[in-house]
Amino acid sequence: MANYKLSTLAVHAGQHPDPLTGAVNVPVYLSSTFELTGIGADRGWDYSRAGNPTRDRLESALAALEGGTSGHAFTTGMAAISALVAMLRSGDHLLCSRDVYAGTVRLFDQIVSGYGIEIEYVDSSNLAAVEAAIRPNTKLIHIETPSNPLMVLTDIAGVVKIAHARGIEVSVDNTFLSPVLQNPIALGADIVMHSTTKYLNGHSDGLGGALIGTTPEHKERFLLIQKAAGGVMSPFECYLVLRGIKTLPLRIQKHEENGRAVAEFLSSHPKVQKLAYPGLKCHPQYALACRQQKGFGSMMSFELKSREECARFLTAIKIFLNAESLGGVESLASHSATTTHGSVSEEVRRTMGINEGRIRISVGIEDKDDLIADLDQALAAV
Question: Within 13 Å and on the Cβ side, how many CA atoms surround 258?
Fold first, then answer.
């Protein structure tokens, strides 16, 4: 289905009618094991850790949406990143964006580094800094763009050019924008990662993660990791993501409309400081956002004067919910220092540029005027 546009792919890629019954929705195959047709022979599946018909459908859809050659579904976004770095070996060097989700930092620093893999964080928005940080043993550059929660962009094509000249692969966390608004593989990236919990699922009712590869070696390696290490997405979770993907382009359109309206409101509010949203022309990376993205999304963050002001704001919101996560149909707001980045030290947060006054919001698909009114009254309580 490579020649179809994304809205068509979202509805049909991996979601063809069931050949046995004609069911339009992909069946949920809850079986853990499958009858073999003989010794060493099967109908395509033998054990659900190695492969499941429902998961196969989701993985096919993910590959089609991102323009990759193989998709691989995992229990969570962190399980997907764990599988990503499982490609590396002791003595290898991994470069990672400095401003990333703290769960990624926790995994890299507290677990992956113990395997003898060298982890280094770099300001990936600065291509010269990326190039200077490369070592002879650098094997992978992992970037998150836009970053969480400061919405810093990385020039994907620029990093790819630097990396590929040295035989280094590039992986991109595309969770914040989804395949609707950003296509890292089209910009040269080798691997795309998602927390499917977010926009791909879109309804805040399931956990999941995904890797999309571009080479036969990626497919072989990630299949091995799925079989050997497990951590694969359950059939029912796969069904939930497939259901979410069908409406992904429509939801993103509404998220985007609301996100722009909310950002415009916040940008002129006297109590809001350091609003981070690349869709504003005053954002220093607005031109890059226009060049490598198809839209600006509905994620943003801003600062209030103190942790106490954040507490008053989060207590006062009525439509927005004080909750972690993002990308669901409902609007969420959270205090970054104690939620997404609560797992790293204050010193690390300071290095990242995240202080106690930072609020991150995920704008949902409610009426934009209601959302703005809610933010207005909550800021009045600050």
Answer: 28
